[in-house]
Amino acid sequence: MTNRLADAASPYLLQHKDNPVHWWQWGPEAFEEARRSGRPVLLSIGYAACHWCHVMAHESFEDEATAAVMNELFVNIKVDREERPEVDQIYMSALQQLGVQGGWPMTMFLDAEGAPFWGGTYFPREARYGQPAFTDVLRTMANAYASGDPRIAQNRVALLDRLRKKARPEGRVTIGTNELDDVAGRILGIMDTEHGGLQGSPKFPNTPFLELLWRGWERTGRQRLRDAALHALDGMSEGGIYDHIGGGYSRYSVDDRWLVPHFEKMLYDNAQILELLGLAYSETLADLFRARAEETVGWLTREMLTEGGAFAASLDADSEGHEGRYYVWTLKQVLDVLGAQDAEFFARHYDIVPFGNWEGVSIPNRLKEVERSGADEIRLALLRDKLLAVRATRVPPGRDDKVLADWNGLMIAALANTAPRFGRPEWIDLAANAFRFIAESMTRDGRLGHSWRGGRLVFPGLSSDYAAMIGAALALHQATGEASYLDRAVAWQEKLEAHHAAEDGGYYLTADDAEGLILRPDATADDAVTNPNALIARNLVRLATLTGEESWRARADRLFDGLLPRAAPSLYSHAGLLNALDSRLRAPEIVVAGKGEAADALFEAAQRLPRVDVVLQRVADPAALPAGHPARAKAEAVDGAAAFVCAGAVCSLPVTDTNRLAEMVRSGVAPA
Q: What is the pLDDT of residues 504-520, one digit of tens each?
């Protein structure tokens, strides 16, 4: 017999529809049941690709005896953190206030009004390794709640008070380029000089940090900052965290040298890494970065496209009950597919060894220094294709095929931004198709929804959806020159202002007419994805430049005035906001005016510059520039195509040579 999750749209919730646990979906009905029955709420939050979520599900939620205890003592609510990130954000913050590091599955205990009083992450079915048995935790919490234990009320009040204070620190903070340079230098000091990335394990891509280092190099010319970002990209691109057979990056590496991935693949990770691969290739022209970008987009089109043209959320880590089984190889399996001579050649280059490099099997990687010629690379590519065809016959990991507006927005922008860098115009078509699906199927009355699956839309959307999709619209506008994308970006920004603006200048995650929560989440720190406030700030700066409406820039300044005091005590966790501030302080604009091959060449050169957040405008007629634009009069005085590098209210003299344009932007030559 199925439970209430059988009606869910989320693949993660559907994974639990046959549990003997009497699960509820998040909603007022569940809390009404808690009030009616006098029971507390057990809130379990996870996601489809989460390995330890599957472990706890198998141990406890599928166990009749454990489920009986849960059903007797609690109203049990199951939440997909990707479908309801606002719920996840509130209770993850509460868990961290309890001194728990956090992670998933998240297990929280709430009163009937949704206020948390205790929580944890994974609990084993039986006590081990110093962790109590899950049923012991359940009985202890239920007894404390039923007996009116004063610690319950104290925890509840203290947690809510801490959450509110954390959200609203006082004071004004000034952060400028000196402070940004200092943070970049400090991050450089904790980078792993041997393997790349941050020191220690587990090792996450941490793209906001890598972007912060890259921007530090742009500002200061310190080569070590650039090299640290490139070293990290190189390490993860040669390590086992990258799928060398099928393309795409896993979420993180459990070791300190990028060898052993946590095998789940997330859309957002690959979007953010793709952006950096584009920058790295534009700077170095290294074949490695081109190959990884093209292979990753190949994986995206082969395994992540949904029927409507948008992208699925994630691939699971597990298949056939084992983590990574789909992706690993034995030497015998490689021999069976390739034959002795080719297998020996492939194994030497990809670390396929007789007894395996991880738990008796081998994770393909290229971390060892092996000399390879161009002919070798061609041969290896053909062998990878053979292995990929055989791998496709294995039982695949589960795919969470819900369409998330925010994660899709990140990938759409990455495709639009990197297509010119790699000379792949078909990526813009891929991005435009996904954008069209979200704009047409995931909006109501001009407002975005958050999650779509099987014709069912989670609505209204979140500020993260607007942040990413406005960024996607602006990226497509710059890539194609189509005004409709800019119009859509402005319209969505106006909806964001109407329904998400917060009193301090930032933005609430949830809309003003969304279902009530114990508080409106408005976190400013990054997690696996750059914080939406940071993305919005970058969008506002670009909107001001592209539309000529300085009110958008003033809106960005109000955001920084309100949020920098909250960021100041923990700048490392606000790398995204610092990157946005860097864009506000110095992001250049390049205007290409004119028609014909000369204008095409200048525009394409500008698109390939290894700079973050360059705002590009292309106009056949200078009169199309916003009134009062500093390049307008200069462009009207030029006969033929020319580019202008602008900063603030000043633009350079006309530039007609593509090499000169690159030199000006790279060297930071001030406009004249």
A: 999 999 999 998 888 89
pLDDT tens sequence across 148-195: 878 777 776 766 676 566 555 556 677 889 999 999 999 999 999 999
CB neighbourhood size of 98 (10 A) = 17
Give me the pLDDT at residue 457, please.
Answer: 97
Instruction: State the Cα–Cα distance between residues 579 and 68, nearest whole angstrom.
Output: 50
| Distance, CA of 312 to chain centre | 13
Q: Would the pLDDT of 144 be above 70? A: yes
Q: pLDDT tens digits, residue range 330-358?
A: 999 999 999 999 999 999 999 999 999 99
Q: Give 396's DSSP letter.
A: P
Pairing state between β 322-323 and 589-593 = unpaired
> What is the pTM (predicted TM-score) of this model?
0.90
Indicate the pairing of strand 106-110 with strand 252-253: unpaired
Crossing angle of helices 267-284/207-220, nearest 10°?
Answer: 30
3-state secondary structure of 165: helix
CB 89 within 8 A of CB 166: no
Between CA 271 and CA 652, with CA 419 as vertex, the angle to 5 degrees is 110
Confidence of residue 670 (pLDDT cuts 50, 70, 90): very low
Interacting residues of 565 by C-beta distance below 8 A, sequence separation 6+: 169, 170, 171, 172, 173
Residue 288 near residue 234, CB atoms below 8 Å: yes
Round to the nearest angstrom and report the end-to-end CA distance of the chain.
74
Cβ contacts of residue 584 below 8 Å, gap of 6+? 537, 541, 553, 556, 557, 560
Smallest Cα–Cα separation from 396: which of 302, 466, 496? 302
Render pLDDT for 236-266 as a digit per residue (tens, 0 to 9).
999 999 999 999 999 999 999 999 999 999 9
Residue 60: closest CA among 71, 75, 50: 71
Please name the amino acid found at residue 317: A
Tokens of 49: 């690709």
Confidence bin at 14 (pLDDT 50/70/90): very high
Angle 438-439-440 from CA coordinates, rounded to 5°: 90
Alpha helices (runs of H) in 351-373, residue ranges in sequence order: none
What is the spatial distance between Cα 625 and Cα 618, in angstroms, rounded to a whole number?
9
CB 635 within 8 A of CB 621: no
Q: What percent of the chain has pLDDT over 90?
A: 81
What rounded mean pLDDT belongs to the chain? 93
State the Cα–Cα distance between residues 239 and 504, nearest whole angstrom.
Answer: 43
Six-digit token pair at 136? 């012991």
Q: Whole-angstrom Cα distance, residue 351 to residue 354?
A: 10
Phi-psi region of 408 (alpha: psi -120 to 50; beta: other; left: phi over 0): alpha
Per-residue tokens: 442? 């995931």
Q: Which residues pair with 616 in a beta bridge?
A: 590
Backbone angles phi, psi at 443, to 5 degrees: -130, 150
Lowest mean pLDDT among 74-78, 321-325, 340-344, 460-464: 321-325
Question: For the chain, how many residues are written?
Answer: 672
Residue identified by tokens 């916003």 is 626
b/e per residue 19-33 (b: at least 16 CB within 10 A):
bbbbbbbbeeebbeb
User: What are the helix (H) ranges across 371-447?
Assistant: 374-391, 405-422, 426-441
pLDDT at 97: 83
